[in-house]
Specification:
With 70 residues, the chain is of the alpha+beta class. It is built from 3 helices and 4 strands.
Length: 70
């Protein structure tokens, strides 16, 4: 998991499975981006799910406002 800014991290789905580490870092909100991923700990974190495909040409732009508000 890489720290981007204070309070903002970027990580893989595998890292998002580590509830202990997420809580240790003070993470409260998780944005899950993927076509077949599931929310892992709905009682512990707030989630935003974006059903995107892992492709170079997949357009994530339509989600920018929603992600910013979240």
């Amino acid at each position: 998991m890489s720290k981007i800014l204070e309070g903002l991290y970027l990580g893989s789905y595998v890292e998002a499975k580590n509830q202990v580490e997420l809580k240790k870092k003070g993470i409260t909100h998780i944005i899950t981006v993927g076509s077949e991923l599931q929310v892992l700990y709905p009682g512990s974190f707030k989630y935003l799910y974006i059903p995107a495909f892992d492709a170079v040409d997949y357009d994530l732009y339509p989600y920018f406002d929603q992600v910013g508000e979240f």
